[in-house]
Amino acid sequence: MRHPPRSVLSVVAGAAALIGGVTVPVVTAQGATPACTVEYSVTSQWDTGFQGAVKITNNAAALSGWSLGFDFAGGQKLTQGWGAKWSQSGTTVTASNESWNGSLGTGASVSGGFVASKSTANPVPTSFRLNGTPCNVDTEPPPTPPPTDPPDTGDKPPALHVSGNKLVDAGGKARRLLGVNRSGGEFMCVQGRGIWDGPVDDTAIKAIADWKANTVRIPLNEECWLGLSNIKPEYAGANYINAVKDLVAKVKAHGMTPVVELHWTWGQYTGNSAGCSDVHASCQKPMPDMQYTPSFWTSVANTFKSDPAVVFDLFNEPYPDRATSTTTQAWQCWRDGGTCPGIGYAVAGMQDLVDAVRATGSRNVILAGGIAYSNDLSQWLTYKPTDPAGNLAAAWHVYNFNSCSNESCWSSTLAPVAAQVPLVAGEIGENTCAHSFIDRVMKWFDDRGLSYLGWTWNAWDCSSGPSLIAGYDGTPTSFGIGLRDHLRALNG
Fold first, then answer.
1. Cβ partners under 8 Å of residue 91, min gap 6
2. Which tens digits make up the pLDDT trace of 446-472?
3. 107 by DSSP, 3-state: which?
């Protein structure tokens, strides 16, 4: 949905570092201002790997190009990176500037990130060199302990996998995903206003469960998750990741399935139906980008791959059809990515993202929405990505103003897809402050045992967008009362 308008582990002098949620002292060079300062962060880690970040501050004369070097001491191996040209030779890692960020003035900073493999230990590098000049760190901090997840309480949602055209639990019982979207994580952080829009404490999540919802879809922002330099640090990297993990844990604690979904991404697009001209992840882009999105999904998959109750939704609402001249080109772009007509950045296709997730060893269920803002699934089966885990489902969005918004279209384009793979309507809604349209959607999906999630559990004015609630205690709007009463009738 396009939104209504709305007004780390660190190594740094004299500071303390946050390591996996634990604060430890950091020992750095003291005395005169160093020629350069490096903040090294472990923003997320798992059994076999971790996500890291570096922030370089140049305290000396301005540079027209830069190269940062450091050494891994625990056998870590770099696998991919962003914000720089990353490489590794032996134990030495090098991050050199891209063409667009080579200028580094006196007092200026630049940030980048990476994903690497590890064994049991993950010692922090003990020295950093900027263009050969030693930076501030001269003593190794303690090793990074594993992150501490919030404890689970209450009933847990089931581990899910695909069986034929159904989502089923470990015992083979079918589970329909019926619930709501919880918007905020995609836009608040990039706007510098926080991480969530409204409360996400236990009371607020219990209010969702009280509607008898069994699923919550959580839209995310790739720049915030990866901790890119344009995001305020308090809303980026480890802080953002931990907030998402905490919300996922709360959703699960109330027996609901969490769907983590990539909503807003990097990449400048100014063509037909552009939401904005900003290169940053501040609006809906036509397709995910190759520069950051595979890294995002590698990190997300590594974060949740041990929890098969978590579902991955690859990309909110692709619309390559608005940029390309033919539908065939749009579907090819959707699946294969690369250089797509009308899109000025390198595109990550759905196959690229499935591959990124599965390369981590994750077998979590994956949702892939079609073109035309996920409203067109007419060629989804023809261009279906290959999933070696066999856990791929189709996602679809519908509002009363979409092209495919009647039973005739649903029967001709959705029914064939639903006959072969699980089908989840990740967003249903209408802009009328009523619920007559979604009543029709829910009936069609109920008759076929399919899944749907209402947009959105946010206390906005329903006349400016499909807002389900007037307050976070679960008081419904005149639109939301239709979904609430329907879910209670089904699951009450």
1. 71, 72, 73
2. 999 999 999 999 999 888 789 999 999
3. coil
